[in-house]
Design goal:
This protein has 619 residues and is of the alpha+beta class. Helices cover 47% and strands 14% of the residues. It contains 23 helices and 19 strands. It has a four-stranded antiparallel β-sheet with strand order 1-8-3-6. A four-stranded antiparallel β-sheet has the order 2-7-4-5. Helix 15 links the parallel strand 15 and strand 16. It is globular. The relative contact order is 0.09.
């Protein structure tokens, strides 16, 4: 075989689906290919083709457009164009947007390879969405032994029928039932309806310590407002829910029927990440120094979770739960030092913490919402409170916001009426500053809000966004600013020189575009969700986004963000500082192919959003 054929074989061997061919078939393939050159702005495939062919891009770029001239995809080095080998080829047209070199394989040869090699054929039988779902499985792989909480479902932990009694049962009888069955909690049922629950702690604190006669009905000490989970919830997610709510028992309910109860003891049997229990240490911390020591272990948590097979969603939930707990504890320590607040307040978090999508590399975004009776005489207290918490978070590893979007900034420490005015101005006059702040303030979540100040602010904000098409159009245009690096295998779209040579920013070019898309869908439909996955699914439920579009974006987000988390974990494991600059060399050919699928999908969804809201008029 001459040198040119060897070079073609080596090129194909490193790219899916040709990497699925046995060596003998791969060695024969270059002789069956025709090398074609297509000039820029020429129709593609070449008009003089004598038979339908599969085209493999060796160099250059091809754009795919539908009958409405909408861009639906872009192909670059290593991509395949099989339009002429498919029945739906008339639905699309393609153009070379750069001088392009391709290898052409007759469709009949392609079919022969598909018939003989199942792994090769599978690539052509899957849609981009299916390939992304498969890619998630590849990235997650099989978790190492001892990582049960990452994979086990809650239903597998339920090994007995629910232990329950009625609300009129005496406290003494209820305690006897718990002792007889050796359980630390008891469900209180009214027929098939779950009315409440009592635990050992309730017996101690609400009965014995309170001097309540044990002959009183159990309904007087039961907890009525219960959080529950579904049986298919992962053990890891159940653990996060417990730590977030600071509870030790969760009822398991399926379609309104009580299946049983899962406890922290049950989860301990499957415990995989001891660092998740940092939340318990945080609740008991008596000083900032202790919290700083706990914060120093958060990068270790990210490494451990990624190594254990956790996805980006699970890592983000875990780290955000810990950040929430640290923030709450700092607020408690601040109040202990400064005294009770003079007026009610709400501590709001924004950005990735609000979306529960943090990594150990995240900075802090937060603000203070004060009751309207707050006056100038109260600002000294809240300024000191904000400084205490912001400084504490910084010391714990969540650095100060580079844009100073923190409660220590007087601008973001205001009464409810001022916050109403802020949002009204941003929505009615969506100037560049408002759009810049959107990623923080339109993702706000209340973290400490005993007076319920946040809900009326959020509801009024959502009413305004849903009704203002011009604002949504500006938001849509803003969401198109960060584009995925289509064809990033080519040096032209990689960073050149400096500390990040030959890399691309996987956060701003990968995850941020999906976060921005989800935000626009949520605000246009008046949805209260802040988490990106929850926003996309809620948008599909209300019809603001197709179900397929939502599912594909969820998969793309999880795949890209998981690669980002894995990249950061690798840096932390090697003693380096985590960042978002990923080199294509870190990825396998299969991962690069799946990542390109994700980028193509994002680009398509961005184009669709821009046309839907006429975003081009507002750029």
């Amino acid at each position: 075989m001459d040198i040119e054929l060897i070079e073609i074989q080596e090129f194909l061997a490193g790219r899916p689906p040709f990497d699925q061919l046995p060596e003998e078939a791969l060695a024969q393939l270059p002789r069956r290919l025709q090398v074609r050159y297509v000039r820029r702005d020429s129709a593609f495939p070449p008009e003089d083709e004598d038979s339908p062919r599969l085209y493999i891009l060796r160099r250059g770029a091809i754009e795919l457009r539908n009958d409405d001239d909408e861009l639906i995809g872009k192909l670059a080095e290593g991509d395949l164009c099989d339009l002429r080998c498919r029945d739906d080829s008339d639905r699309y047209r393609a153009t070379a947007v750069e001088d392009t070199l391709v290898y052409a394989l007759p469709c009949r040869e392609l079919e022969a390879l598909r018939e003989r090699h199942a792994g090769f054929a599978e690539h052509f039988e899957q849609s981009i969405s299916n390939r992304l779902r498969k890619a998630l499985d590849v990235v997650r792989d099989t978790p190492p032994a001892g990582t049960g909480l990452m994979t086990v479902r809650v239903r597998s932990m339920i090994n007995r029928a629910p232990i329950s009694t009625g609300p009129e049962t005496s406290i003494r009888e209820a305690a006897g039932i718990m002792s007889e069955h050796r359980v630390s909690s008891l469900l209180i049922m009214e027929g098939e309806h779950l009315a409440g629950m009592i635990t050992d702690r309730d017996l101690r604190s609400r009965c014995l310590a309170a001097g309540l006669p044990s002959e009183r009905p159990v309904r007087e000490i039961m907890t009525e407002r219960l959080h529950s989970i579904e049986p298919d919830t992962l053990g890891f997610e159940a653990l996060l829910t417990m730590t977030r709510l600071n509870v030790h028992h969760l009822p398991v309910i399926e379609r309104g029927r009580v299946m049983g109860l899962v406890s922290s003891t049950d989860l301990t049997r499957f415990q995989s990440a001891n660092a998740v229990y940092l939340v318990g240490d945080i609740h008991r911390a008596e000083s900032l120094e202790t919290l700083v020591q706990i914060g120093a272990r958060i990068p270790e948590l990210q490494v451990h979770l990624v190594t254990s097979g956790a996805t980006a969603h699970q890592v983000g939930q875990a780290i955000s739960t810990i950040t929430d707990a640290i923030t709450r504890r700092l607020l408690e320590l601040a109040e202990a030092e400064l005294g009770a607040p003079p007026v009610p307040y709400c501590w709001m978090v924004g950005g990735s913490q609000a979306r529960r999508e943090q990594s150990s590399h995240s900075d802090q975004d937060n603000a203070l919402l004060l009751a309207d009776e707050a006056g100038p005489e109260h600002d000294a207290y809240f300024a000191a409170l904000a400084r205490f918490v912001n400084d504490g978070l910084h010391a714990c590893g969540f650095i100060y916001c580079p844009g100073d979007v923190m409660a220590s900034n007087p601008k973001w420490r205001q009464p409810l009426r001022v916050w109403h005015d802020y949002f009204a101005t941003w929505i009615v006059k969506p100037e560049p500053l408002a759009l810049m702040l959107a990623s923080v303030f339109f993702d706000l979540r209340p973290l400490h809000d005993p007076a319920g100040l946040f809900e009326p602010l959020q509801q009024r904000m959502l009413e305004r966004t849903r009704a203002n098409r011009i604002f949504i159009a500006y938001m849509a245009a803003n969401a198109l600013k960060y584009r995925p690096p289509l064809g990033f295998f080519r040096n032209i779209v990689l960073i050149h020189g400096g500390d990040h040579d030959h890399t691309f920013d996987i956060k701003h070019r990968g995850t941020v575009p999906i976060i921005d898309l989800a935000r626009v869908y949520a605000l246009s439909a008046g949805l209260a969700e802040t988490n990106t996955r929850e926003r996309l699914r809620a948008a599909a439920e209300c019809g603001a986004l197709s179900r397929d579009g939502a599912a594909n974006l969820v998969d793309a987000s999880e795949f890209i963000a998981t690669l980002r988390m894995r990249h950061q974990a690798h840096q932390l494991r090697n003693g380096a500082k985590a960042d978002n600059f990923l080199s294509p060399d870190e990825l396998s050919p299969l991962e690069r192919g799946h990542l390109k699928d994700a980028f193509l999908l994002i680009n398509t969804m961005q184009e669709s959003l821009g046309q839907r809201h006429q975003a081009g008029r507002f750029t």
